[in-house]
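Task: encode each sequence below as structure tokens.

Item 1
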Amino acid sequence: MQKNTPTNCETCVNYTYDDEYDCYVCLVNLDEDEMYRFMSGTNYACPYYRLDDEYGVVKHQM
């Protein structure tokens, strides 16, 4: 991921639905500074972002 690219959590592999909380949550435990940057700005580039690309995984396995 590029440093200056804003993160789209909905396309991240770490963003999953939690049945217990009945909502989507991030599986990564952000530290206090990372959480502040995430909550305060729209241009947060998450260092843990990984594209949830199921087709890429299947293509790689072929």
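Item 2
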Amino acid sequence: MAKVLTIDDSRFVRLIIKNIITESLPGWSVVEAASNKEARDIIDVHDNIDYAIVDNNMPGGSGLELIPQLKEKIVSENIAMLTADIQPGMKVRVEALGVSLLCKPVTEELILGFLKRKPA
């Protein structure tokens, strides 16, 4: 089944996302990163990541800075920016990158809506 990379400096947010996925999508797996550096290390090693859910505000760089690197390994349609910043400027920047925008708070409907909209 599919593998999802969650990138968020909040361990709590990563845990919520992981629980939603593992409880609702049997066979799917989750790989976690707490920073841009961890995420880059993971995508350098794993060639089989199907989806990425990326926080924007993290130590060591923003999700907006990381997305172009993720797009080298994951198709744009399978990448989502997860943020509490719902300002129009953020929406424009995310759209320009060609990825989805998911607005916090994290809910089962939000995460599964993104992951289930099409096969990996």
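Check on item 2: The chain has one domain: 3-115. The beta strands are 3-7, 29-33, 51-55, 79-83, 100-103.
End of task.
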